[in-house]
Amino acid sequence: MQAFDSAGGLSVQSYGDFTAHGSFARLDDGIPREDRQVGKRLARAEIESFRERGFLPGIDVFGDAECDAFRRRVEEFEQTRPEAVEWAFDIKTNLLFDWVYELSRNPRLLDAIEDLIGPDILLTNSIFRIKEPGSATYYGWHQDAARIQVEPGFVLAFIAISDSTPDNGCLRVIPGSQHEVRPFGLVGYADRQVARVREVDESAAVDMVLAKGQVGLLHCNTIHGSGPNRSSGRRIGLINDYTPPSARQSTGMGSGQLVRGVDRWGHFGAEPVPIGGCTGENVLARRRILNAYPENVLMGPLGPDGVISFADESSASR
Predict the structure, then answer these.
(1) How confident is the model at residue 311 (pLDDT cuts 50, 70, 90)?
(2) Which of 94, 107, 127, 264 has minimal CB crowding within 10 Å?
(3) Any residues with CB less than 8 A from the CB of 208 and at least 6 apart, and which?
(4) Domain count, the chain
(5) How many degrees, rounded to 5, is the angle at CA 283 between CA 282 and CA 287?
(6) Which among 94, 304, 310 is positioned nearest to 188, based on CA atoms?
(7) What pLDDT does 37 receive?
(8) What pLDDT, in 10s, does the model give residues 54-78?
(9) Direct distance between the N- and C-terminal alpha carbons of the chain, in angstroms, rounded to an integer
(10) Which residues pair with residue 305 across a beta bridge?
(11) Rg (CA), the chain
């Protein structure tokens, strides 16, 4: 088992250039931020830091009121449909809830994504990552595109609906690890197999500390994981995958919702937009998509038997 001792890591709480000493320095050289702007949302130093290090922390996107409203939606569903939470908050939750889809295509968020992957953007997955107070749940070191590689790479956005800190199990990342897929093993998780990197220099890890409403961005090959929640509060996050439609998968064909620009390539299947929250129609639409396009980065390549497996309402009722 790999250790996730945040006391031995570095904390990342602001924009800036990654220094030789292994920490981020604020962009506080007296130059107004707007004079540095080269993209719609990100400054030149932020874009260059992402290219070099494979991640970018602490982007202010959502206000307290937006996070509180989203959290109320989450907790209302948990209270009214507790039997459905395990599968409905899993892979492709953006096909089940219109409020997840709407948050995921927020223009402020998409502006930052556009600065990194271009004006044409597919939302290829949304998945909740919620850690209860005192939860021992942790996620081992992994690269999201290890089993099915994607080129050009997609960007992960961790949306902090609550504060995300070392105490409650924030993301930890290995800077500069996005340049190649590392050797990995497979472990079972939520009716599928997931990749875990075999060897990681944990002394290089940094904590991606996010305040409520902030977003952390990662390249799809950046090694990351997270530790347990040792705090008395919930850690609520939503992780989205944003993919340029020009990208190709090394295996199979994925699918996504076009949330900005145009898709001139047709490399990914088109997904519907949900209406309402986890309606019967939305459940069937998600099921159809995952059966039609089962070889996505979360589910991985099909095995020799061709069996498609994912957490679903039907599997939860078995």
Answers:
(1) confident
(2) 264
(3) 12, 55, 57, 158, 164, 170, 171, 172, 173, 216, 224
(4) 1
(5) 115
(6) 310
(7) 63
(8) 999 999 999 999 999 999 999 999 9
(9) 31
(10) none
(11) 19
For 58-89, letters b (16+ CB in 10 Å) and e give bbebbeeeebeebeebbeebeeeeeebbebbb
157 within some domain:
yes
Q: What is the 3-state secondary structure (H, E, C) of 78-141?
A: HHHCHHHHHHHCCCCHHHCEHHHHHHHCCHHHHHHHHHHHCCCEEEEEEEEEEECCCCCCCEEE
The Cα 144–Cα 134 span in angstroms is 26
Q: What is the CATH number of the domain that holds 98?
A: 2.60.120.620
Which two tokens mark 128?
């909740």
| DSSP codes joined into one string, 18-71 | EPTTSSEEPS-SS--HHHHB-SSS-BHHHHHHHHHHSEEEEEE---HHHHHHHH
Structure confidence at residue 258 as a pLDDT band (50, 70, 90): very high
Q: Do 96 and 63 touch, CB atoms closer than 8 A?
A: no
The confidence band for 188, taking pLDDT boundaries of 50, 70 and 90, is confident
Q: Which two tokens stand for residue 157?
A: 């956005």
Taking a C-beta distance cutoff of 8 angstroms, is the pair 212, 67 a contact?
yes
- Give the Cα separation of 114 and 145 in Å (integer): 20
> 46: which 2 tokens?
């932020």
- Which residue in this structure is represented by tokens 């290829």? 124
Q: 141 in a domain, yes or no? A: yes
Tell whether 1 is covered by a domain: no
- Going by C-alpha positions, the residue among 123, 126, 117 that lies closest to residue 159 is 126
Residue 104 lies in a domain: yes
